[in-house]
Amino acid sequence: MKVCVVDRAQFPSDTASTHGVQASGAKILDRLGVLEALWQVTPPITSGTIAFDDARIAATSPSCWGPMLSARRVTLDAVLIEAAAAAGAEVRTQTAVTGLIEDRGRVVGLETKSGELRAPLVVGADGVRSAVARLVGAAKYDQTPAGRLFTWAYFEGAQAEDGHMWLGAIGDHSFLAFPTDAGLFMAAVVPSIERREEVLADRQAAFAGELPHWPELESVLGGAQRVGVSSARADRPRGSDGAPMTTLVPRLISRATTIRMSRPTATAGATSPRT
Q1: What is the mean pLDDT of residues 243-271?
Q2: How does residue 264 score in pLDDT terms, banded at 50, 70 and 90?
Q3: Is 22 part of a structural domain of the chain?
Q4: Cα–Cα distance between 105 and 184 in angstroms, integer?
Q5: Where are any strands of DSSP class E within 124-195?
Q6: Number of domains observed in the structure of the chain
Q7: Are strands 4-6 and 90-92 parallel, antiparallel or unpaired?
Q8: pTM for this one?
Q9: How big, in percent rounded to 5, are the helix, strand and coil portions of the chain?
Q10: Looking at the domain assignment, is residue 20 inside a domain?
Q11: Is-cis flag, bond preceding 12, omega within 30?
């Protein structure tokens, strides 16, 4: 079988999407034969601190689940592209899909600025703003409006345990943080979309202003140096194809509260290519 992978991006190209890969996703990467290469550059996430208002839960990854994974897309995409090419796929980057070729009501190829590509099977794995879905007229359903503004930055020298994740919802303040590749630590604050203008006007100040709401995480970043600027992205409307990372924070926290049944007073034990 001949396979051609088409992507509009020029790699390396960064995005916050698929930054945190859960254990089930790591198992898929293992079946693809790329997990070992990723373990060489990013630590497995095997434990975490979950905060829900004044409650704290110390979580560990059960051995039957396996560890989570966090690699920046510049790293993850490079590994995936190399693996695809090594398996015999033709990889074409900087190639945007401009149209679909149809024959008797069936998609049999793609149109690009570089010419046509014909294939008996076309797979549109191109994310929430899928060009393929738009071109075939796929209906959107079960959508929810954007509710949060995902604001993140990378740090060097964070005083964090190896393989430890931070996930929190404290009042109207949400957080997500974990070690990633290249010795960096990714930390994100997720304020309400109602504060969009304020946050976008001064991302650095907004980021710093959120951290005191979780003092333990703030102390982890106390002596760290930010690498680059703080980035921000609105939580996009999403349908039943899955929740974006920004909405996973309160959902996972909500699930955690059902596990402990009552609020403790002390610490208790307890992934798309773009077209």
Answers
A1: 39
A2: very low
A3: no
A4: 49
A5: 149-156, 164-170, 173-179, 185-189
A6: 2
A7: parallel
A8: 0.78
A9: 30, 30, 40
A10: no
A11: yes
